[in-house]
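Quick one: structure tokens for this chain, please?
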Amino acid sequence: MTRSTLTIRTSALLLASLALGACRAKPTPVPTPKAPVAAPATPDSAAARRAAEDSARAAQPVPTPKAPEPQPATPARTTAPSAVAGTGPVTADERRAAEAARVALLERIYFAYDADEISPDQRAVLDAKLPIMLANPRVRLRISGHTDERGADEYNLALGQRRAASVKRYLAARGVGDERIETLSFGREHPLTDGHDEDGWAKNRRGEFEIISGGETLRAPR
């Protein structure tokens, strides 16, 4: 074999080795995965979606209805002022009746000589005061006992006090509270008349009444 022939073969082998090495070094291309194609919606899948939405809505908490705000209470209808206890008379008729009640409360009673007992005819005067006192719990009275001019001052002061106390006991026994009645005695110091005979003396042996509180709202009993 000639030298030139050997050179040609050597070159051919070298080229073949290079081509083979190039083929081995070239990376094999990786195929790109195709994106999944969404399946077309079917009637079954739409119904399932609606069912899921309905379930989600049902799972949400139901709002509690707000309680209605309380309305202000309507004030109870009150009785007319003329009928309310503790108020004074309003109409002309009520004023006249109240004045008659005042006169009855202030009416005097009289006693026998040297006595503090209440006679039957004088009990009727006190009995007329009872319904007025009971209908007017704010009214308070002062009862003063008086005597005629005969006798010593000390004796007449004690007698006058016994007469006032006798009236208080009579009223209290019939429902008028003790705390609503005061008593005192003037003895013979304040005579009603200056007569020095039995007629004058009979008028001075008396019990006087004074309204000390509650008179401004005094009403006649109904």
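Residues 75-83 have pLDDT under 50 and may be disordered.
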